[in-house]
Amino acid sequence: MAENRTGTSLFSPFKMGKFSLSHRVVLAPMTRCRALNGIPGDALAEYYTQRSTPGGFLITEGTLISPSAPGFPHVPGIYSDAQVEAWKKVVDAVHAKGSVLFCQLWHVGRASDQVYQPGGVPPISSTNKPISNRWRILMPDGTYGIYPAPRALKTSEILEVVEHYRQASLNAIRAGFDGVEIHGAHGYLIDQFLKNGINDRVDEYGGSIENRCRFMMQVIQAVVSAVGADRVAFRMSPAIDHLDATDSDPLNLGLSVIERINKLQLQVGSKLTYLHVTQPRYTASGQTESRRAGIEEEEAQMIRAWRRAYQGTFMCSGGFTRELGIQAVAEGDADLVSYGRHFISNPDLVWRLKLNAPLNKYIRKTFYTQDPVVGYTDYPVLSKADGGQAPLARL
Length: 395
Ligand SMILES: Cc1cc2nc3c(=O)[nH]c(=O)nc-3n(C[C@H](O)[C@H](O)[C@H](O)COP(=O)(O)O)c2cc1C
Hints:
single chain; alpha/beta; TIM Barrel; 8-stranded parallel beta barrel; two-stranded antiparallel sheet; globular
């Protein structure tokens, strides 16, 4: 197993702020559309506990901060009392298995449709420009549609959305979550402000990098002041063009975000729990999710530049295999690695990676379906004969 001179490996413990993790394999946040009518139920409790390990770290699927936040069917929310109550059962079940659980706070912005919006109004964004028809939206009936034109938020409306993030973070803590991850990646609302390929505003939220980072910083500051920096994380993907989220200078955008978070950390005298960065290498084949050929070395350099610049815990995601995860941690490119698709199909992924056991293949067509079991909680774990289900304390 690849280890560096200090013996650090994907399977060695890590102190993430106030949390003592027993390994560095993280469950990446993944929308799974199983929270019927926005309420997390028993299926979610089962799904997350299956993926829990003592001292493990899990991040929930994107969780809605307000009624205008959805753009997928049956995504859980964290804005109503009923949702908070329902999450408590999921959180308690995960805690009983010894894992730390963060709630990912999500607003999709223009990646929505009137059908998901209260009153059937157009979705909100930084811009009036729709997502191009290169992309499709999953509709409640399982068909795919074209994204509609959004409505650019008025300057005077923006602080109200910031307030929704703040309130959602308080709700998450009330539900028992250990912290929150603010979703600033993948072309959703915060990314729609950050990227100059989308943001065409002429007010103080558009134009310069300072202005494009303003909404993000207001959200982070509000959430940090509500629940404390040590319970807040931020996810960004400056180099990912998902949903047309392009920027003319992703390296500099990432560095600018990091510079501002570093400064905030100094001001409040506490670090965020971690910074989560999605690699452009979203598939393991050297292509971005949108199939644009990646320039691997250039991309690796960019991630390293962000890693060096950020003064805190650094988590990477995107196309990690066992070998790439081991290498990233051993070479110091990441403190933690989040796994997405392999974790969907391997509830005991941590154990399988540790043993170098074969992985179940994920079934893409059930990623976003609603069956509470099929494609969700029915992937098999290793049998005892394969070395599975050994005492997890040995991890
Ligand atoms: C079905 C599915 C749903 C996803 N939903 C989210 C989400 O809600 N929030 C988020 O930040 N990323 C989401 N992602 C991205 C994952 O967190 C992860 O970064 C991505 O799958 C790349 O990692 P992988 O190559 O290990 O799968 C999703 C990915 C998949 C496959």
